Amino acid sequence: MTAFRGIITLKHIFVLAFCVGISATLANALQWRDCGSEATIFNVFVSSCEDQSTCPMKKGSNVSLVVWFEPNKQITKATASMRGIMAGVPLPFPLQNPDGCKDSGLKCPLVGYESYNYTNSVYMHENYPTVKLLVEWELRDQNGDVIWCILVPAKIIN
């Protein structure tokens, strides 16, 4: 049992080193914040945020998200959502694919304490207001419990 635990620890070190390497390679200055994750989040990448602390989300384009994470339990179903928070009011953004187990880089069931990369995108409609906001992305499990939740400062631009 101890030897097996050592392999898991070594694996975690390799995963963390990989994520740190990816972070350095992407040079992403994204200032995301955890908002109640049960999983361990290693890194977050948002396509429109290279080298910027506030994500410019251009109207008429897709914004992609990648979250490298490790759940703390088995996940049989995952549902994603995204909200824009303006003046403390959460407003939903429709995701092109809310099923976290389909076309997202994940294949359910997810095994606890294994590393995964989740990907999704959202279309920024031309009729969205030009505004600064907090974007909240989350992934919930089969029981409605939060797997991970992140907050990203953003601005919708023309």
Kindly describe this structure.
This is NPC intracellular cholesterol transporter 2. Residues 32-154 form the MD-2-related lipid-recognition domain. Keywords: Disulfide bond, Secreted, Signal. With 158 residues, this protein is α+β, with helices and mostly antiparallel strands. It has one domain: Immunoglobulin-like (Sandwich), CATH 2.60.40. The protein is built from one helix and nine strands, in the order αβββββββββ. Strands 1, 3, 5, 6, 8 and 9 form a six-stranded mixed β-sheet that branches. Strands 2-4-7 form a three-stranded antiparallel β-sheet, covered by helices on one side. A hairpin with a 2-residue loop joins β5 (79-86) and β6. The termini are far apart. The model is unreliable at 1-6 and 12-28 (pLDDT under 50).
Structure described in brief:
This protein is an alpha+beta fold and 158 residues long. The chain has one helix at residues 2-26; strands spanning 33-34, 40-46, 55-58, 61-70, 79-86, 89-93, 116-124, 132-140, 146-157.
List how many beta strands DSSP finds. Answer: 9
Mean pLDDT: 86
Query: What's the structural domain tally?
Result: 1
Low-confidence regions: 1-6, 12-28
Architecture, according to CATH? Sandwich
* Main sheet makeup: 6 strands, mixed
Topology:
Blueprint: H1 2-26, E1 33-34, E2 40-46, E3 55-58, E4 61-70, E5 79-86, E6 89-93, E7 116-124, E8 132-140, E9 146-157
Parallel strand pairs: 3-9
Antiparallel strand pairs: 1-9, 2-4, 4-7, 5-6, 5-8, 8-9
